[in-house]
Amino acid sequence: MKYLEAFRDGGIARTLAEALRREVQPGRAYAFMEFCGGHTHAISRYGVEDLLPPELRLIHGPGCPVCVLPTGRIEQVLRLALDRPVTLCVYGDTLRVPAAGGMSLLKARAMGADVRMIYSAMDALALAQREPVRQVVFFAIGFETTTPPTALVVREAARLGLSNFSVLCCHVLTPPAIRAIAEGGEGGGAALIDGFIGPAHVSTVIGTRPYAPFAAGFRKPVVIAGFEPLDVMQAIRMLVRQVNEGRAEVENEFTRAVTADGNLKAQALMAEVFTLREDFEWRGLGILPRSALRLADAFSGFDAERRFGLEYSPIPDHKGCECAAVLRGVTRARDCRLFGTVCTPETPVGACMVSSEGACAAYYAYGRSRDPGAAAA
Amino acid sequence: MKSVYVRPLDLRSGHVDLAHGGGGRAMQQLIGEVFRRAFDNPWLVRGDDGAVLPALAPGERLVVSTDSHVVSPLFFPGGDIGSLSVHGTLNDVAVMGARPLYLSVGFILEEGFPLADLLRIAESMGRAAADAGVAIVTGDTKVVERGKGDGVFITTTGMGALPADRELSGAFARPGDAVLVSGTLGEHGMAIMAQREGLTFEGDLRSDSAALHGLAAAVLEASPGLRLMRDPTRGGLAATLNEIARQSTVGIVLEESALPVSQAVAAACEFLGLDPLNLASEGRLLAVCPGAEAAPLLAALRAHPLGRQAALIGEVVADERCFVQMQTMLGGRRMVDWLAGEPLPRIC
C-alpha cells in the first residue's frame, strides 16, 4: 500500500500542477481524451481536474466495458437468460445495464432467470465443472484486459471436454475504437481532441506498438498512463509537451508495467482462441469493422451464439439518452437532459450511468456537487 | 406416576426439523435446551408470553430499535451472526444516547440447519448480551421448509433508557461542527466480502463487530454539547454522512488523509475496486460535536479501548444542497455519494 500511496501524494501533485501551469501556453486550449474508464474513475475519484490549469480540458472516452455494450447485446443475453434453461455468469457491472423497456439482468434475475455474479472467468468454469447438469454460459465482455482470462477458460473447457459450458463473447478491441473516435463523425473526432491518454491495463497486454500507426496517421500524441492520479498528471504533462513541440508520438508513462511488445503469451493465447468478427455494434460508435472477437472455429463448440442459435439485432437507444455522444466525447455527461433527472445510478437509462468507470456515473458520484443546480438528494 | 423420559436434543449432529417450530413439545425442548440455557435470565425462565419489565426512572424515556440479520457466511473472523445480532441492535440504541437494557429476538430457522451451529450462535448471543449487561428477555422461533431460508435469520429489538435531559439526532448537525470516527473503517464489510469470495489477503481481515455502549458513554461525558452519534453500518460512512447532511440540511467536508483505514482493508479495496467509505463497520462510532469540543472528544475516544485509532475526519459546513465532499490526498475535491446498488467490484 505504501507503494500505491506514492502515486497519490499531494506534495508531488502540487509540484506537477505547478509545472503544468508553467508549461501550458497562454491562450492555447488543450483537450485530451482519456480513453479508459479506469482513468475516468481515477480522475474523478481523486479530483485531478481541480489541479489542472484552466487551459486544460479532459474528455472522457469510451473505454468502459459495459458502456460500449449496445442495447441489442443486452437484449440478446436477456433473452438467453429468460427463455433458455441456462445459468448465466456475468461480471457485476453488467447486471444493471439497461435494455429496452427498463429491463436489466438484475430484473431478469428477480423474474426467475438464473443469473450469477462472478469475479473471474474461472468462477464460471468451476460452476460448470461442479454442476454438470447445468448449462453454464459466461457473458464475456471487456477490452484486451479481460480477454486473456476468457481465452484461458475456453481452452481449459476444451481440454476437459465440458459439454455444459459456453461463452457469449462480446470482447472488443481498443485500437479500432480509438481510431473511430479520431475519425469522429458528428462534431467529434480529431478536430476536438489534441491528444490521448492511452490505456493502462489494456496496454500491458497489447503493448505500445498498436498505437503508433494511429498517432502518426491522425497526428495525435498518445501517452500510455497508469491508473493512479499522479500517472495521469504526468501523462498530461507529457501530452502538453508534445503538443507544444508539435510532436505526435506514442510515449509511455506507465513503464513500470507496459512494454513496447506487451504480453506476448497473452497475445498468443488470444490469437489461438479468438478470431476477429467481421463487424460489431458499439454503443456510441456504431458498427465498427474488425473491432471485436468471437471464438475461433477450433473452439466454436463453446460459442454460446452457435450453441443456442442466437441472432443479433440492433435496438435503438432511448431517445433522450446521449450516451452515444458522451462516449464519443462530443457531449459532457452533465449536458445530457436525462442526467441526474430520470437517469441516475439507481435507475440508469444509458450504460454510461452504470459502471463507476462510465463518464456519467463517475460525474454523478464524484463531481455533480460542482453544478450549481444539483442537489445531493 | 411413571417418569417421562425425553430424549435430549442431539446438539452434536442433529438438525432443525419442522417440529421445532410447530408449537409443540419439540419447540419447547429447543427453546429450553438451546435458547433459555444460552440467554439465561429470570424473564425467560418464567416462560410467559411476554416479559414484564420494570418501569424506567422518572423522566427517562424508552428508546427502541430493531434490526434483522441475514449475514452470509454465518461465522466469520471476528464474530458470527449471533454476536452481530446483539451488537448491531444494541449499538443502534446506544448511539441514540440511551443505556441499552433489554433485547427481544426472533429466529427464522431453515429446516435441516445443524443444531450444533444453532447452539454456537445462541451461546455467542448470550455471551455478547451478558458482556454488554443486556438481557434477552423474550423471543420467538419459526422454522421454514428447506430451501425457503438461508440457515438462520435473526431479528433483534433493543430497548434502552434515555435520560430526561438528553436529545441526540441526525438533524442537529450545524456548520462548524466537527466529525469524528472511533476507528478504522470498513473492517466488517471487507471481512465478510473476503470470506464470501474466498479471498485471502495479507494481514488480518477481521470484523470489528463490538458493543459500543461503553464508548458511547465516554463520548457523552466528554462532549456535553454532542449533536449526534451514529454507527456506520450498511452503506458505510458515506451513507451515514449523507443521511446526516440531509437530516440537518448541511454539507460535510471530509479530509481523506485523516480517514483511518487499516492496511488490510486498504489493500483489499484496491484489489476489488471498492471504497472503504462504502463498507460497513459494526463496531465503530461516528460523532458530531461542536467544533470547540472536538479536541477533548478525540482524547476521550482515544483513551477508550475501542477508540484507540479515533480520528477527527471532517467538518460540517453550510450547504443547503446537502453535499458530502472530500478533500482528496492528491489535493482535489470530490463528492462522497451514496453507493448505488450492491458494492460491486470493477471488472478491469
TrEMBL record, chain A:
The keyword Nucleotide-binding does not apply. GO terms for biological process: protein maturation. It comes from the Bacteria. GO terms for molecular function: 4 iron, 4 sulfur cluster binding; carbon monoxide binding; iron ion binding. InterPro entries: Hyd_form_HypD, HypD_1, HypD_2_sf. Keywords: Iron, Metal-binding. The keyword Iron applies. NCBIfam families: hypD. Belongs to the HypD family. This is Hydrogenase maturation factor. It comes from Zoogloea dura. The lineage of its organism: Bacteria, Pseudomonadati, Pseudomonadota, Betaproteobacteria, Rhodocyclales.
From TrEMBL, chain B:
Residues 47-161 form the PurM-like N-terminal domain. CDD domains: HypE. GO terms for biological process: protein maturation. It comes from the Bacteria. NCBIfam families: hypE. Belongs to the HypE family. This is Hydrogenase expression/formation protein HypE. The gene is hypE.
